[in-house]
Amino acid sequence: MKNNKIVYLAVATALGSLSTTAHSAGFQLAETSATGLGRAFAGEAAMADNASAQFRNPALLSYLTDTQVSAGGIYVNPNVDIDGQNSSTGPTSTDDVAHDAVIPNFYFSHQLDDRLTAGIALATNFGMETDLGNDFTGTQFGNEAAVTTFEINPNLAWKATDQLRIGAGIRYVLGEGSIGAKSSRNVNLPISKNTTLLVPEQTTLKYMEGDDRAWGWQLGAVYDINDKHRVGFNYRSEVNLTLDGHAEGLTYNINPNGSGSPLSNTHYAGSMDLTLPATAELSSLHQLTEQWAIHTSLNWTEWSSFDKLEADIPSLSSDPKMVKVENWEDNYRFAIGTTYQWDQQLTLRSGIAYDTSAVSDQNRTLTIPETDRTWLSVGAGYEMTPQLTLDAAFTYVFAKDASVKEPRDGITSDKGGSDFGGDFEGETTGNVWLVGVQASYRF
Description:
By secondary structure, this protein is mainly β. The chain is built from one helix and 24 strands.
């Protein structure tokens, strides 16, 4: 029997597909502490509330005395809907494509002497999960995606002078992800000049999963202008993951007589490179009165490093296969928050932030309905004892309604999906609720 394999393994936007659940731009997560959540993460590179501060700027460890532990979690409830028209089947929609999640964190700091403080952070700032469902007739462009990253981040801070503090850290990132796409209707696929084969609805067109471990680093500095005003800066390097695992796809055996049959559950060893982008943050803290403080942040993320995804499947080809052209752009986040010291025990927080989109209207996709976001946050901290403080926060994130069209104009690699269910054009809408709690203890 002659075996002629026709494989559809364009493994679409693997980890990038998760932006529907991420709450900063792209598939980035900002949810690193309940303390910061209460002020919309404004001033994070300049504020040293507890041991969690080191994840956003290791230099802030030098403000922490004794030994401190901080632990908590943030519950995320995203509501993302897609509604539009399929060129072959008409109106189609899907609701709640992003899954709920709890994002945990743990931080530890220890003052070594008057100048040096060490710490370790266990947290994440990339990931989530989406599922477009089986009834949506756009699944030929991508129907599911998942990513999990976990970061182990030891840090060290040095008090260089009474005004200047410097910090550095090593980042060990563990990541895994998966992506899939299915046909959204029955399709007669031309295999040769005289042969067509039926591709049933909900046939897996592509699926890939893999994992990797990689290293990165961060550097930070804080400068006290005086006892009322402070600025902080932090830079986190990019981390390059090669997701190593297996791929599946639509494959056919073609017999000598021209008949054929689909193969299922055919695995191919493969991998795909993914860069978690570099980030930078410039923050300020201004103590206006003994009770009132205002703090700001300007964040930058190098999403332009996410220009395309390619799959390496050695058994099929020696050349990388185009997964998806992304053409993302660097994005910015602007945040301003306030802190009010109600009394010796109770601290109140609030903040507002604006995330610019990492993609243009032309490059937005169903699996990455990336758009501008606005954050509104409130929170509080209560000192139960001189050693124990509890924090809680609530945030509402609403995303700007945005158009989405697949295949995209001018991008040839998008067009293969249309053969398995038609074109899609519509709109994505969404919002996110976040609730965080945290406990901090000083020994």
